[in-house]
């Protein structure tokens, strides 16, 4: 079969700083996918589309008919960190890894098959947030001693450097976001394993559990950082609501209370992450996305 990467993946990888290396990887992808399938003795059924923004996912079957999913990501996106996080969770709250024997050779992940077309976004908003909170409770565990994951402070330090060069239209919000980050990282916070990229679309329906998280970008730090991305989920719906800024603040308070997270810390990380994402969208020419993100940040 043809292993044509979905356009969503091509566009997203093209926005990365190392996009030249990613282009090479995309060109080699058909051969890489064939080799990864052969090593694991599985047969491709179809490429998942529209798929994700950081990897190619191929739905596959073992010879005995058992379904699975093969995930291939560029080496620069550190699939080894994703594997380490999934192994640490051991399928509790997250997708399960089926086979790790060939990961060091090609970086591919062979995972249990979930239902890629059914995420929490298919549920009514209140129910989706309830299930999302339940999933996060299972994922927030202590990391192993001597873990090799980035901390929230380290990850956001790099992002802060970019934000300091924000264009004039985002400069005021960038200053507010940088000040919030400075305050949030001034004192030691929790050290828990975080999903790092958690939102409703990253939680899929499964067979052995109703909902399981996929696609972590793991790091170690406080829960408020992980929860911050969920605050702005279904952003266009929030922006279209008549509730406006008051609605955004209520959402922060509701999620903070549901997961016993400090409201001010959640608001601060939500502000930082929204402005950082908006600045990246501006740099990539995604003006509509940038405007939504920065307006939302202004509400906070």
What would you say about this model in short?
The protein is an alpha+beta fold. It is built from twelve helices and ten strands.
Q: Strands, helices and their partners?
A:
Layout: H1 7-14, H2 19-40, E1 42-47, E2 56-62, E3 67-72, H3 79-89, E4 97-99, H4 103-106, E5 109-112, E6 115-119, H5 125-139, H6 152-163, H7 168-184, E7 192-194, E8 203-205, E9 211-213, E10 219-221, H8 223-231, H9 235-240, H10 244-258, H11 263-283, H12 287-299
Antiparallel strand pairs: 1-2, 2-3, 3-5, 4-5, 6-8, 7-10, 8-9
Which tags fit this structure?
51% helix; single chain; Aminoglycoside 3'-phosphotransferase, Chain: A, domain 2; globular; alpha+beta; Phosphorylase Kinase, domain 1; 300 residues
Protein architecture, described:
The structure is a single chain. The protein is of the alpha+beta class. The chain folds into 2 domains: 7-113, Phosphorylase Kinase, domain 1, CATH 3.30.200; 119-299, Aminoglycoside phosphotransferase (APH), C-terminal lobe (Aminoglycoside 3'-phosphotransferase, Chain: A, domain 2), CATH 3.90.1200. 51% of the residues lie in helices and 14% in strands. The protein has 12 helices and 10 strands. The strands form 3 sheets. The protein has a 5-stranded antiparallel beta sheet with strand order 1-2-3-5-4, sandwiched between helices. Strand 2 (56-62) and strand 3 (67-72) form a beta hairpin. The longest helix is centred in the N-terminal third of the chain and has 22 residues, at 19-40. The protein is globular, with a radius of gyration of 19 Å. The chain starts with 6 loop residues before the first helix and ends with a helix. The mean pLDDT is 92.
């Amino acid at each position: 079969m043809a292993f044509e990467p979905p356009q969503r993946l091509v566009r997203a990888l093209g926005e990365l700083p190392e996009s030249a290396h990613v282009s090479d990887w995309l060109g080699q992808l058909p051969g890489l996918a064939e080799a990864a399938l052969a090593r694991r003795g599985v047969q491709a059924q179809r490429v998942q589309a529209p798929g994700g923004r950081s990897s190619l996912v191929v739905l596959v079957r073992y010879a005995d008919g058992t379904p699975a999913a093969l995930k291939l990501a560029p080496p620069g996106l550190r699939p080894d960190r994703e594997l380490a996080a999934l192994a640490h969770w051991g399928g509790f709250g997250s997708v399960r890894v089926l086979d790790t024997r060939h990961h060091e050779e090609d970086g591919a992940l062979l995972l249990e098959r979930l239902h890629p077309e059914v995420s929490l976004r298919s549920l009514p908003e209140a129910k989706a947030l309830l299930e999302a909170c339940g999933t996060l409770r299972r994922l927030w565990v202590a990391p192993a001693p001597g873990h090799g994951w980035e901390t929230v402070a380290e990850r956001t330090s790099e992002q802060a450097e970019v934000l300091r060069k924000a264009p004039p239209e985002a400069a005021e919000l960038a200053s507010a976001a940088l000040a919030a980050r400075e305050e949030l990282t001034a004192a030691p916070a929790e050290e828990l394993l975080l999903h790092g990229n958690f939102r409703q679309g990253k939680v899929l329906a499964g067979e052995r559990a109703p909902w399981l998280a996929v696609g972590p970008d793991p790091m170690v730090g406080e829960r408020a950082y992980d929860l911050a991305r969920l605050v702005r989920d279904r952003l266009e719906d929030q922006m279209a609501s008549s509730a406006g800024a008051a609605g955004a603040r209520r959402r922060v308070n509701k999620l903070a209370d549901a997961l016993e997270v400090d409201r001010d810390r959640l608001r601060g990380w939500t502000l930082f992450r929204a402005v950082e994402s908006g600045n990246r969208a501006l740099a990539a020419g995604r003006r509509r996305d940038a405007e939504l993100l920065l307006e939302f940040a202004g509400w906070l």
